[in-house]
Amino acid sequence: MEITEVRLTLRNEERLKAYASITLDDCFVVRGIRVIAGNDGLFVAMPSRKSPEGRHLDIAHPIKSETRAYITQKIIEEYQKELERSDSKK
């Protein structure tokens, strides 16, 4: 599996820093991924919905930790590039 595209929409909120969409192998898109500023730095939250009980349930998520690390790395790398591009426009 290869991430062939990452698209970001930057947000200027305290914890929510961006929304991301990834394309896998040029044939499958996952939207609604969030880049969050946590206590220990940035992390990626998979798309989720709120259950009637108030719990957040992932709609789509990686099963293997290696896959989660790969997705996180690609999104955070693109987020850093997007920040640099937006800073250079100011």
Explain what you see.
The chain is of the alpha+beta class and 90 residues long. It has a single domain, classed as Stage V sporulation protein G (Arylsulfatase, C-terminal domain, 2-Layer Sandwich). The protein has one helix at 65-88, and strands at residues 3-10, 16-24, 28-38, 41-45, 48-50, 56-58. The strands form 2 sheets. It has a 4-stranded antiparallel β-sheet, covered by helices on one side. The protein has a two-stranded antiparallel ribbon with strand order 5-6. The protein starts with a strand and ends with a helix.
Which percent range fits the helix content?
25-40%
The CATH architecture classification is 2-Layer Sandwich
For the record, what is the CATH homologous superfamily label?
Stage V sporulation protein G
Q: What does the oligomeric state look like here?
A: single chain
Which structural category fits the helices and strands? alpha+beta
Coarse morphology: globular
Strand order of the largest sheet: 1-2-3-4
Strand composition percent: 35-45%
Stretches with pLDDT under 50, minimum 5 residues: none
Output the number of helix runs.
1
Mean pLDDT: 93
End-to-end Cα distance: 36 Å
Rg for CA atoms: 14 Å
